[in-house]
């Protein structure tokens, strides 16, 4: 039956319907017949425990060759039964900006990795674990019309750390240069890369890890590379952009305490002014 015939039949019936507008069509949808019931939030349920109530905060201490010693705080589950919190804190690697460690905003493009190696009370003693550039700094160095030169080498420091150094350099315009581009030839790039290998090997193998970090922060190695390659091709933006520790010697607590300005030989020494202390006399009455 067509829609027009249905409308005509409805209008001709004597059931009191005045038209199609009086008719009500409903869909048989039982899943929409009742509103969905949402369970109430378990806010006051005593069985729900905040996980942070089972955790403790520890202070992170940086080595003494950084200006700022207290880096921040780290979180760990509280010691319970056979699960010791110190075991979960040791060997944890933290990433800190060098600008925060040295209070110098000019070092904001470097990221330093610190590894927790010892726990003393609520303090986590860390050691240097690596260094890297921020991505925005690295991308800002790459430009057109110049050559990019990279080199990396594995060096063993005097105290037994095997580190991998990544260096980066860019060619620059000579004085009074007219040509637009500053591309170096393949032979020049090989000579520059050879110089980079020699300088990184010499500077890193002749010092321990602490002295190496102190060379990396003021960019001593990069300046030495830039000076040594002036006769081959002028360079600019020469950096040791990344440092990775591949292998570390056996853990030595005494050396770690020396890095943090402490010494194991100081333990048990008398406190200054202890000889002048006199025990007060016993009072007869209070």
From TrEMBL:
Q: Which domain of life is it from?
A: Eukaryota
Q: Which UniProt keywords apply?
A: Cytoplasm, Ribonucleoprotein, Ribosomal protein
InterPro entries listed in its UniProt record: Ribosomal_eS1, Ribosomal_eS1_euk
The answer to whether keyword Nucleotide-binding applies is no
Main location (coarse class)? cytoplasm
Cellular component terms (Gene Ontology): cytosolic small ribosomal subunit
Q: Which Pfam families match?
A: Ribosomal_S3Ae
Tell me which Gene Ontology terms the entry assigns under biological process. Answer: translation
Which residues does UniProt assign to the signal peptide? Answer: none
- Where is the chain membrane-spanning? none
According to its UniProt record, where is this protein located?
Cytoplasm
Q: Per its UniProt record, what SMART domains does this chain match?
A: Ribosomal_S3Ae
Q: What GO annotations for molecular function exist for this entry?
A: structural constituent of ribosome
Which PANTHER family does this UniProt record tie to the protein? 40S RIBOSOMAL PROTEIN S3A
Report quaternary structure and partners: Component of the small ribosomal subunit. Mature ribosomes consist of a small (40S) and a large (60S) subunit. The 40S subunit contains about 33 different proteins and 1 molecule of RNA (18S). The 60S subunit contains about 49 different proteins and 3 molecules of RNA (25S, 5.8S and 5S).
As for family, the record states: Belongs to the eukaryotic ribosomal protein eS1 family.
According to UniProt, the name of this protein is: Small ribosomal subunit protein eS1
Species whose genome carries this gene = Chytriomyces confervae
């Amino acid at each position: 039956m067509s829609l027009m015939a249905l409308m005509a039949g409805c209008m001709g019936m004597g059931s009191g319907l005045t038209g199609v507008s009086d008719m009500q069509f409903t869909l048989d949808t039982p899943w929409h017949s009742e509103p969905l019931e949402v369970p109430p939030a378990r806010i006051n349920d005593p069985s729900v425990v905040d996980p942070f109530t089972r955790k403790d905060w520890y202070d992170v201490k940086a080595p003494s060759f950084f200006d700022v010693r207290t880096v921040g705080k780290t979180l760990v589950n509280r010691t319970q039964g056979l699960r010791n919190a110190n075991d979960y804190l040791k060997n944890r690697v933290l990433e800190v900006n060098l600008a925060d460690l040295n209070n110098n905003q000019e070092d904001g493009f470097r990221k330093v990795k610190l590894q927790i190696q010892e726990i003393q009370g609520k303090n986590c003693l860390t050691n240097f674990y690596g260094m890297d550039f921020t991505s925005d700094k690295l991308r800002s160095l790459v430009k057109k019309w110049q050559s990019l030169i990279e080199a990396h080498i594995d060096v063993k420091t005097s105290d037994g750390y095997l580190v991998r150094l990544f260096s980066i350099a860019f060619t620059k315009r000579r004085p009074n240069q007219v040509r637009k581009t500053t591309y170096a030839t393949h032979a020049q790039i090989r000579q520059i890369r050879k110089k980079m290998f020699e300088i990184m090997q010499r500077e890193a193998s002749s010092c321990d890890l602490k002295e190496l970090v102190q060379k990396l922060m003021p960019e001593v190695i990069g300046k030495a590379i830039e000076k040594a390659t002036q006769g081959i091709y002028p360079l600019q933006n020469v950096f040791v952009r990344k440092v990775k520790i591949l292998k570390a010697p056996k853990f030595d607590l005494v050396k770690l305490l020396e890095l943090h300005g402490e010494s194991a030989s100081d333990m048990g020494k008398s406190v200054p002014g202890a000889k002048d202390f006199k025990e007060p006399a016993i009072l007869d009455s209070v």
